Amino acid sequence: MSKVLQTTRRSFANDDGGVSAIEFSFIAPVLILLFLGSATLFFSFQSAQKCEKGIFTVADIISRRSEVNDDFLKKMYAMFEHMIPPTKEPVKLRVTSVSKASGKYKVDWSYAVAPWPKLATAAIPPGALPEIADGDSVVLIETEAVISLPSAIFGSGEIKRENQTAVRPRFVSAIAKTG
After folding, report:
1. How far apart are CA 39 and CA 37, in angstroms?
2. Strand 158-167 to strand 104-112: parallel, antiparallel, or no bridges (unpaired)?
3. Under a CB-based contact definition with an 8 Å cutoff, are residues 106 and 74 in contact?
4. With b meaning 16 or more CB within 10 Å and e meaning fewer, what string describes 117-136?
5. I want to staple 109 with a disulfide (CB 3.0 to 4.6 A). Which of 44, 59, 128, 177 is the partner?
6. What residue segments make up the domains of the chain, in order of their start?
7. Residue ranges of the TadE-like domain (predicted)?
8. At what angle do helices 70-83 and 19-63 cross, to 10 degrees?
9. What is the separation of C-alpha 124 from the centre of its chain, rounded to a whole number of angstroms?
10. What pairing do the DSSP bridges indicate for beta strands 104-112 and 92-101?
11. What's the count of helices (H) and strands (E) in the chain, helices before strands?
């Protein structure tokens, strides 16, 4: 009986059939998580880049104008929406002309897409504006978009992209808003 037991034990110890299947069952979840993590990280960076390019494009186009109106700013909003990845919630956009007089910032005009309110002088975000000279102005553009990531299939896959930039008008001292 002990010889049968030794033979069975030796045969079991030398049998390597199925080892690769067991190794694969250990490593497969790790590989899948690495792949999904890499895809999520890539998409996150890609969405950040697209949102930044979108706001810089809107800022550059507005900075080249001498005046804007609501229709033009609605087109800028539509263009920005097309430049960024799809979102579940409405994209927020606010364009504000800010001037400086007697050392204080003042909002000349503001255009906002709901649900954001127009920017008031008292609500100018600290640090959002560069140093500008008295009598000069800048256009502050702010955006917010909630982007869905591939990890959303697991329940938590949204990232909020908030961007803001301030540009100086190129050809005039201040961009006027008509209508």
Report:
1. 5
2. unpaired
3. no
4. eebeeeebeeebbeeeeeee
5. 177
6. 2-178
7. 18-49
8. 160
9. 21
10. antiparallel
11. 3, 6
